[in-house]
User: Fold these one by one.
Assistant:
Number 1:
Amino acid sequence: MTTTLEKPVDRPLPYFDDRLIYEKSRIGARAWRVPKNDVKSQPAASYLSGVALRKTPPVLPEVSELEVIRHYTNLSRLNYAISTTFYPLGSCTMKYNPVMNEVAVMLPGFREIHPLQDDNSVQGALALAKRVMDYLAEVTGLPGVTLHPCSGAQGELTALLVCKAYFEDRGENRHLVLIPDSAHGTNPASCAIAGLKPVPVKTGPDGLVDVDDFKSKITPDVACAMITNPNTLGLFESRIHEVAEALHKNGSFLYMDGANFNAIVGVARPGDFGVDMMHINLHKTFTQPHGGGGPGAGPICVCAALEPYLPVPRVVEDKDGYRLEEDAPKSIGRMRGYGMNFGVMVRSYAYMRRLGAEGTRRIAEFAVLNANYLRVKVGKHYAVPYDRICMHEFVASSKKQREKGVHTIDIAKRLIDYGYHPPTVYFPLVVNEAIMIEPTETESKDTLDRFVDAMAKIAQEAETNPELLLEAPVTTPVRRLDEVKAVKEPDLKFNCCVWEPT
Amino acid sequence: MPYVPHTEEDVREMLAAIGVRTLDDLFTSIPKDFRRSGLLDLPPSQTETEVMRDVTDLASWNRNADGKPCFLGGGMYRHLIPAAVDHLQSRSDFVTPYTPYQPEVSQGTLRWLYEYQTMIAELTGLDVSNACMWEGPTAFVEGLRMAASVVNRKKLVVSRGVHPHTRQALRTITKYLEFEIVEIPLGADGRTDMAKLRAAVDDRTAAVGIQSPNFLGVIEDGAAACEIAHGKGALAVGSFYAISLALLASPGELGFDIATGEGQPLGNYLGYGGPSFGFFATKKEFLRSMPARIVGKTVDREGKRGFVLTMTTREQHIRREKATSNICTSNTLMALRGVIYLSMLGPQGLKEVAEQCVEKAHATAERIFASKGCAPAVSGPFFHEFTVKFEQPIEKVRDRLARREILGGIELRRWYPEYSNSLLFAVTEANTKAECDMLVDAAGGIF
């Protein structure tokens, strides 16, 4: 009988100095110096007489350059990342981030241009943006494109504002949005800001939107519906065109959350099956690296009727070349400071050019192939509630293992010991003990097979030593963390702030 | 095919395991009418070499600021960036993970975010910082939105000195939140007219919003704005230039309740305006109303220190339509550049950068103002960005600047018709003496 959890991966702990950069600080230590001021001038203070100056200087780390290099190099090694391990985080499309894109974005001609330069001095940037727009219009089948939004969530909000502006222009005040109960939380959150009220729609027993329930909720007050397709169960909403037709008959629009676009890109175009607007997470489908939580970008693509309402500035091409258009009478306006997350566009552009027409279709084909292969193989050891051909991801459940007292969280944590980043867990909410797995197209069969082996071994461990699994992970620099303590005794900065929660 | 590793044999075995014959069989849930058999109308696939040639060509069409005199500002500034920033930030184990949902394998990200929150709290002089936002302007908008929800009022009083784009974004984003937005004009010195601000702030006011230095580069009287706001039970929300916080009174010292700002000057390139990051800090009593992600310290089951995402009940994936914000994916990697930058500079380095910005800007401005036909458009105190009103037609001045390949300045009449024939110039430590001389010559009209 085993008494401790074995360490399945013979992986030495990364070097781990627990100290924060502040705890390495020594008064007077320096790393980098600005060149001496060669412009003849007075000391700064003399130019700032009469202005309120800082009384207490900010406390910042005082360390040597080597200390900085070592500190952050070692911190980076504490992360699991796509570059080091399989990362099947469902709904996040953790595909390989081509390294050439990082080289492209660092070209001085891209990184050293200012957003207020004259258009004629940034023709390359605007041309690149326009080509990204043309590509997105082609893959979505929706002609109106803006690259403006900061992220998927802001893309969503932008689209809702565009939709609202359309109706206002017609003197209509529609305020309802139909949203399936399996939707991502940003959908209702974005509605709230756009002054729209979400109306939940049920998911049927087949894991798809209940079309009858949906149709029964269409009233003259419905501005649009927000549907994620494929949905968060990894299933294609195969009656989406019926839903679209019913909405269109009512004068309403269909918004598609493009979070899962990786499943269909190149194979089906949302514009063809009745979608009127969608956002695209370039950090998912178009391989902008996730960066530990961004940056991303959330361009939106819309049908011709909604195009006049898109935000400014807009990239326009005419006989004199490219320019940023600021004045558009029907536009909702500006959503952020400057035009777009340009660096994200550079990476996505390089990726799009690498793929071309054929490679674009291969994304969806192999993402779906990989997901189905895992669904079948993982399904031998775990429950798969909607066990049929899925799209780019599927949702398993630890229902079987729960009988032994092992929950999804334990399986997720144990996967870490096998060297894998866990899948998305406890989402979507419509599945109990959900384990949402999205392998993406860039993973090889060999990687998937090894992952299946780990999942099988964990299922076995859940059978024979269920109580031990609650100990996982055992191979990480820290073990399971007390999240309740973090909330009850907020400590959000170094040294000086534990207080009573208000 | 690029980035798809499968061999033909792999595909055969996998299809067999699934129990289908072809890849197309995997897509039968998509109705036939909408499934495309052929390829889309896109260019053919290219090799890495071909794509690099293409993007290098596109990049070469842009006139960039590398090694050229750049005096453009307006919220985005060209500062020197230590080599360590590019080097460390580009480490793939920082670049390719996602949001640290699984803290045991994300301590790297979580730890530097905790350091980041400490640095931002220190710079702003406030109690708590979130784990970064998208960019400066939207951080400011979120600050005003948060203030409105904290004090439960709907009126926002915002200075016209706030970046015009930020004010435009505020109106777009909050259009349906039934806010009443009142804009306060600037006085002859380019500062917010405090008498008019005082008159506009009343018992219905949720927040006073100002930017300092403001869009004209003028340092505002932040303490007065806070006093006016607090006098009526409103919050004071500010947008600040990060580098200036090393010298100027911190938002906390001035009395601000919420401090936001553009993170780009902290170790990020201009990058045509994005992605950068936004910082956001507030007082501890408002912690639970703060938007975006927050990292907190805790312990693991063995009592070892560790870090986690915390207070997630504020966020959209739990609270849905009642969330404090819809922000989800933020601009984390750009904030990492900020953390490395601040670690490399330290308090002394940052102070020296700030001082040099002030010194070079003021010395250059004085020389321009000494030239014939050049005067400041506004008289208030500035930090590193200043206005010049020209007697000559502005087109002539711009032509002289362009001929010397000088980037900048920004023409003010685009947003402020009252400042006709005026340009806005920013000078930083990155500008050399030779560049400053060129600017003086070009602006001053010496050929």
Note: The mean pLDDT of chain B is 95.
Number 2:
Amino acid sequence: MNIKKISILISIFLIFSLGLTAQDAFGFLPKVNVSTKFSKLKWANSLATRHSLYEKENEIFQHQYVLADFTSIVSTKILHNKTIYGGYMLRSKEGEFIHRLIQRFAWVQRLETARLGHRFGIDQTFAPENDMVFRMRYRILLEKSLQGEKVNPQEFYLKLANEYLLAFKETAQPEARLIANIGYELNPRSKLELGLDNRFSDFTNNSLQYKIWLTLTWFTSFSSSAKKKL
Amino acid sequence: MNFYFIIFLMLLFFLPNCLFAQEKFEQEKRIAASEVPSLARQSIEQCSFNKKINWYQESSQDGTTYEAKTKYQKHRYSIEFSKDGDLLDIEKNINFLKINATIKQTLQKSFDQKFKSYKIIKTQAQFKTSNSNLSAKIFEIAKKEITPKIYEIVIKAKEQSDWQSYEILIDSNGKILRQSKIIERNTDNLEF
């Protein structure tokens, strides 16, 4: 990695970290995603937990386990770079179970020196004693190698994403996310990503809510390897 | 749900992955011009490209090669050298639609027979010459004064039920010389 790239990286993280002093909450989001392929179907399971480390309301730094999400998604390619997904998420929060049905469509574009991913999704959330909540979301994501034209095993990459969520519920507010990750490809089946997930909501009535999550995600697969790359 | 139980589950996921990690791959990494064999560097310097030259070292089971990548007259060029700096080939990115009509028809017929569906991802024209003639050859290629003897085409095709990427080498008559499967990078981190 050269000096120019390191400077760009540091700048990006500094920009993202500027908000650390002004956020309403700060926490940690570890996640593991395991996928495997059966013929034309890919099955991905993930386990994510959420930990609150700081809340402006109480003005204290304290570790507090918030929730755990288990997600199982099946996908299939409908075109060479377009995939549809269907899945289910089980959320365990404060002793209650919340269920979510997920439908998505993703499109990955291979640029000359980067990969661009678009993801459109809808989901339906079912919580005890609550009406079903319908949400729509869109995410655009760019992955760029930091050590060459393409990412190779044992190399770093940068991943930037922007996501918008809209919930169809009276009290719900739209949410925007700005995400910056540094990724490391451990081997062709496995990647580790560390980043900051900045979530903005309630920006319609002058009471912006700003939360930052430190994310650590491990993607692993039991089906693919890479000898030559596109 | 117990937090420590979740951590334990994550560790369980991690263990089998470590067992799969021992493999050898073709790898391309960006390098400084100073790390390139001097013969290769000098050959490129003689070409007086206006755009920046990016150097890459490619390692595979077949050995190590060096590649200079640049843009010249709106086309991407990739010039490959051996580990001693001898010129191996020149590749120019071209539009598939602009290749010779007869070759295109032969290929399209061949692809239609082989695959249920396909999409051309990348087309490169391949040329050979010597180190000393590189500059003149690049000029001829740019002026389209010579036709390539070999084309390298990357396609994404559906043979049976799933989509697969292939790298196909064809000669100037449209005859397929070699077809190899490209195993692509996992896209989980872009999708989930």
Note: Chain B touches chain A through 47 residues (CB under 8 Å).
Number 3:
Amino acid sequence: MGRVKTIARRSFLIGSAAIAGGVAFGTYLYKRDGTNPLLADLKMGETAITPYVKIDAQGITLITPRADVGQGAWSMQAHLIAEELDIDPATATLISGPASAIYYNGVVGAESMPIAATSDTLLARTGRGAADVMGKLMGLHITGGSSTVPDLYDRLRMAGAVARETLIRAAMQQTGLPRNQLKTENGCVVLPDGLKIEYLDLAVLAADIEPVQDVTLRDPSQWRYLTKPQKRTDIVAKSTGTQIYGIDMVMDGMVYATTRTNPALGGELVGFDAEDARKMRGVQAVLPINGGVAVVADNTWRAFQAAQAVTCDWGPSPYIGDTADQFAAVAASFSDDHQDSQFKDDGDVVAALEGADVIEAEYRIPYLAHAPLEPMSVVVKMTETRLDIWTGTQIPRFVQANMAKLTGMDADNIHVHVLMSGGSFGRRLEDDYIGQAVEIAMQLPDTPIKMIWQREEDFTHDFPRPLAMARAKGIIKNGAVDAFDLAIAAPSVAESSLARLGQPAIGPDVAIVAGAWDQPFDIPNYRVTGFRTPAMVPISSWRSVGASGNGFMHESFMDEMCHAAGVDPLAERLRLCWHDPSRKVLEAVGEMSGWGSDLGPNRGRGLAFTLAFGVPVAEVIEVTNTDDGIRIDKVFVAADVGRVLDPVNFEAQVQGGVIFGLGHAMNCELTYKDGVAQQENFHAYEGMRLYQTPEIIVRGLENGEKLRGIGEPAVPPAAPALANAIFAATGKRIRELPLSKSIDFV
Amino acid sequence: MKLTVNGETHEVDVEDDMPLLWVLRDELGITGPKYGCGIAQCGACTVHMDGIAVRSCQLAAGDVSGDITTIEGLGTPSALHAVQEAWIDLQVAQCGYCQAGQIMQAASFLDLNPDPTDAQIDAAMSGNLCRCGSYPRIRTAVKSASSKLKRV
């Protein structure tokens, strides 16, 4: 038997090191020595030393560092490793792993660069390479931007292959057999006589072996899990009430807390009177925190009740407080001194518009809340030597750094345990709620504290998707779209959210124009300009980020132009589209929906296309104009992620994205009065419910060159496809979201 | 007061007006029922009282007048209820946070109406919010569970 090493926490992160009686594997494509391994090799596609597989006597543990917020990331990461490791992912334990720079995201940074996903120029490749290096250097341990699959597709399969080959090497030592006589199957090395040695029994031996680096990834034709319908690793737990979310953690001696901070965003707590609250049953403490108060009790409901009983004297919000004024600020930012970007400027738009018969339109989209169904919640415990945090978060390493700042503790002593999230849609890219719980813990050391926000606190303290406006101009020439000029004004998400993460936001904010400037159309005169509205209420990324609203603006105007030209919206897009995978999704959705066939009276069909996060998505929506309002009958979606790794979850994510896009487009907005969000709960922010849900028919295409993620890309085309269908059915063009301000829905 | 939850009787010392949800979660440690809105708008807290689906965030502890069943009492990973089986077969859950409530709603509904029409399913399930948009699969799973239950 090999010897069992004891190692420090740091060395766990490096390669194949022994862990209490077992072994941890990682990939080893980087030079281990050298003064700065991260800078030593800037080539694309290379991965850092990344431990993802742990084996000990208890079993196999797979480390799945990307957060699962419902998109199925844990299960997909496990399947990627398992495919090469030759285990059944259902038999492995999945853990998130520690917050670590090793788990950097090398893809998400490229989303903040003005590089079209369809571009493969030297500049584009260099930019993506820089994003990869930036991810490494900054240790961006972050989940978002539909990046889990593109970022980890190779890295995790490689980790699985390295672990497998190293276990085989251990079996070779034990049996004296050569490599070509051994194979692997279901967690075992199989000998020529059919005898099996379990991986678990090889772990200790493997700990003494230098990980095998020269591994070849399997050809897709040999895959057992990938591209086949997968069984989500969490599906049983989530169907039996046994999945533990951040809100469900229970610890001995735990107390329950909630917070109430100034609903007028950014306003101070001038003073408070907690005399009544302190007398209430079960209340243990009422504590001041930044901008408000925290109540600690022996039961969450008692904490909620007491928090309401605290009388607070709130200061005013420093921000433009009323939504009408917020829109006025956006409108005022369409000016040269607010111009942020002009990444698209083909032909000569100015000359084309000069003296021509110009079609003009103005679009508006509102602030939107994330409102994941699990309200912000976290369990924390702080002692003199360490701080433990259990919660659903997409940014464990930023949490670690920010809480180090807040507490003065060394970041190494702050342990972030990432739990399953009950939704996020981008909300858990913020750590404000964690900071509040830590503020409580600093005042109540050694006590585990579970902090849960009331839903009203959640809605009124969101960092919403920003409002935006677009002004569009176009001309038709010879029955075709000849000039298309889209100006979009919005506050900058990057400026707002990066500041909270302690990072600078340099240069233009791509999100202001994402999903508009980067569309694969050859229009002779085609320009997209971004204008940055000065910061107002704090904002952040919301499922599909900038494209979530820009898709509506771009595709509504495209539809208007097609109708003005008297051309078929599908035929015209196909004529203008130069990108083959995009053309194919357009053709597919046309075929699926029977585009062009007669729908009968009071019915209409709308088309929209958006390429976002590298995924071209085309959607056709059929509606009926009934006596009770618009009914959405059917949605057809074609999307191309390069390769569909799990057809089950692919369909689920596309359907979910469509429903998310449609529900918010129908009836959701966050409006403000004196800096206070006016929608406090789901009665005022419904989204889609089951009775309104159409049949959604999904097709995955695989013509794209690169693998892409599908959590977000189906969202942007949903709103414009619906608005365009409403126009087709009713003749009414709606240029403002939510649509319910202009029309009724069934 | 005494509460019978999943076949077990508990003596709890709580205010009459404490919602059942918080008795279950914080006093009894039964965390399957979820807090989502607190005002009966989302259905994540749905449990059964004598087999009927109720929103436990709106049911005061003092008003509990029957046996309570939570998702944990409906079926377990090793002994699934037909509705849970359907939910697993069809892989309904995404984030899964609403699904305990969805399943409890569906189980009670199918108990009362074993052979529902599509419109009845839509009406019965529309009080349960899913932010991830798993509705198409919920619809299919309710139908599948209905057939499963009929075969039993």
Note: Strands of chain B lie at 2-5, 8-11, 46-49, 52-55, 68-69.
Number 4:
Amino acid sequence: MSSARDEILARVRAALSDVPADEPAGAEPPRDYETSSPLSGEELTTRFCERVADYRANVFRTEEGAIPVAIRETLAAHGARRVAVPADLPDEWTAEIPEPVVDHPPLSPEDLDGVDGVLTGAALAIAETGTIVLDGGAQQGRRALSLVPDLHICVVRAESIVGSVPEAVEALTPGAQEGRPLTFISGPSATSDIELRRVEGVHGPRRLEVIVVA
Amino acid sequence: MSFEPAPFPVAARRELADSQLRVNLRRATTTIRTKRAAVVSELPDWERLREAGRRIKADAIRHLDEHLERLEESVTRAGGKVHWARDGAEAIEIVARVAREHGSDEVIKVKSLATDEIELNEGLAGRGIRAIETDLAELIIQLANDQSSHILVPAIHRNRAEIRELFRRELGVDELTDEPRELAEVARRYLRSKFLSVPVAVSGANFAVAETGAVGVVESEGNGRMCVTLPRALVSIVGIEKVLPRFRDLEVMLQLLPRSSTGERMNPYTSVWTGVTPGDGPQEFHLVLLDNGRTNVLADPIGRDALHCIRCSACLNVCPVYERTGGHAYRSIYPGPIGAILTPQLRGLEQAPTLPWASSLCGACYEVCPVKIDIPRLLVHLRGRVVREVESQGRPDPEAVAMRAFARILASPRRYRAAQRAGRIGQWPLARRGMIRKLPGPLAGWTAVRDMKPIPRQTFREWWEERR
């Protein structure tokens, strides 16, 4: 029996018989599009905050020493008490949570469904598109942790904000080559499936709070 | 549920009778068009991104065999299992096998055109497995036993009142208004228990990276994240044309796709995973590489450009034909301009010979296509193929005979004048209120889809002769 694999590859090769045999595969496309953003420093942070707010997520700007206060106020604003955290979150952050629930040993999906929210860091953020990227690295935990709870509070450090999508992809490449799972988050979950009316919040966290630390 | 077959002109005429549909569609397409135009104009390098996108896809397709082998190697190295499916039945069998291995008679599904194309849900049902659609629009379509009419927003033809009735009836919710927020909330409650308990998920993919084995799903609601994260096993059914050579190519596609598709700078969620990650997400990953007619498309050196499509649906939203007929008239999961070139090639020209004519060749689709597929050129190319390979089948084709006669008339001013005079006499029983709507006999084909101006009482030449 010829396997499906062999047959499909044979069909592909037969179909491509007009392609010159010496034409190399994987030719680089022209990359004359913008690969870096003209923005820098404070401009990046400002642009990122504006773009996140466009998605109707809340943005809270603060500085290093005031992170615990920002966390406390955000939790209070949502009345969130039982909040899940990855095991490697700084103690000063976790200390602000009335009832922290550490994802170690791993919480079941039902446990995660039962908490009021989740608090994580981020791998990086993109100013141009108002996007947060998680790659399962430090202070982020596994994917289910930041997905199942209905409120996601994410701490983004200003120095991790890049200008453009190409800059983000470049920074994420080493991790991607190791096989890290990536999640790009741009605002809370949304749907426009009914009469194209945008509704924030379907299955992913319905509320996204971003604490930007300069 | 599959489409009842009908040639495009017949199906389109039926859809055109539904004025509510046209109102819904015009509002919807206008909204998305405007949003797209706004976010595209923000990027000064849009045209350069489009060209890069076109070149990336062209290389992926022209060297598809090498990229697929590399993808297989990368996914396998990362702990995934790669399957190959010649057709839909083989792909469905793979999903059924995984579900059985996990002792489950249910699978949860991410919105995926490839799985709709192979009618996965019906196939699984025949094997005793229930597929649960988790995208809101797909859920609406599934509960209503309806058909998708748009690539991005499949239930675009349904209004909120209809959806409320559907949810009341099918999900047993009594107290419900037609507020979209409330309807979305009902879907959330219904699906949450499924996300938390069903052990097998099925997805498609927007791309699969040969270099690293990364597979990605671009979405809005978070149902995609749920499906690719929570179950024990994930099966992704991916058309072979979805391969991208390098991880870096994402920097182009992640800019082109959301702006062209939903008109957002970025869609709410994009998940990218590579094989299996210990302690994070499904510990079993199956990638099914699906042919199902794609190698036939590949065999046509001009037609193969249709495989560059990244399924953004921008071409639907700008198409004057789609805006009036809606998606159902195309009788395919791929409607609109891209469907008119993809469906006949995937299924065989004889299965959908009228679709390449479902266009005025205005070119708006080419202008918005994020990977610059020259859809009008492909439409004309496929029209030629249909005439040569399907309609004439060796016999002289009446249109070609008529065109040859017409060419002889146009070649001589004397013959042209004689023909005008003869035509003016011959047309009088046909012209009504300044239009010819129906020609007799073998010429009827010409007026079946278009009206014709009659020859005027006096031509310019005659007018000039009189005044000289």
Note: The first helix of chain A runs from residue 4 to 15.
